[in-house]
Amino acid sequence: MSLPVLMFSAGFGTRMKHLTANRPKPLVEIAGRPLIDHTLALAQGIAPPVIAANLHYRAEMLQAHLAPQGVRTIVELPDILETGGGLRNALPLLGTGPVITMNTDAIWHGPNPLQLLLEAWQPDHMDALLMGVPPQHALEHQGLGDFTPDAKGCLSRGAGLVYGGVQIIKTDLLANISEQSFSLNLVWDKMLEAKRLFGISYPGQWCDVGHPGGVLTAEKLIASDV
After folding, report:
1. Per-residue confidence (pLDDT) for residue 105, from 0 to 100
2. pLDDT in tens, 178-198
């Protein structure tokens, strides 16, 4: 089994400061490769039926980079739509079933997180399955976590696991949100109420590359695998 993949690539990358003055954050290079190529490699590793990316800031640069690699793109205009609005806007490329979404500002060191999600996905009682990272394995990230799993992996908000930016999510609840631009947190809240938001813990390491300090740490993490 595989599912379509959406790579979130529309953000302005303001935390990256000078690194995104003339290019979108997904094209910032880590160990000689654009960030988004590290993400794309994970997506290609599960052979999904579709890989798509939503774009906004300096969209033309990302389109030129992704089109030769077979990635379908959709540009958010005139305004950026955030994660929830961006996913809903991209559904014509992805279909109506569950999808995998990926942030493009992280480096994973260990097994492919998408494969682990697919192996753990149980749609009969899950509306979303998030990949969490134990705080001690979340490099360049501050805080004690975003979600607390119970013994069965059902999540509540609180310390325990850092959301790593990769998930499987059903998309039917997106139609119930009135706003055009909105965070997926609104959808997660509905799933939390229904006790249908689940998570698993990543067995490797993960590095946040959403700020300049994460670049060197991510490169060291990649080099440790050589």
Report:
1. 95
2. 999 999 999 999 999 999 999
The pTM of this model reads: 0.96
Tens of pLDDT, residues 18-46: 777 788 899 999 999 999 999 999 999 99
- What does the DSSP assignment read for the chain? ----EEEEE----GGGGGGGSSS-GGGSEETTEEHHHHHHHHHHTT--S-EEEEE-TTHHHHHHHHGGGT-EEEE--SS--HHHHHHHHHHHHH-SS-EEEEESSEEEESS-HHHHHHHH--TTT-SEEEEEE-GGGEET--SS-SEEE-TT-BEEESSSBEEEEEEEE--GGGGG---SS--THHHHHHHHHTT-EEEEE-SSEEEE-SSTHHHHHHHHHHHTT-
pLDDT digits (tens, 9 = 90+) for 59-99: 999 999 999 999 999 999 999 999 999 999 999 999 999 99
CATH architecture of the region 5-223: Alpha-Beta Complex (3.90)
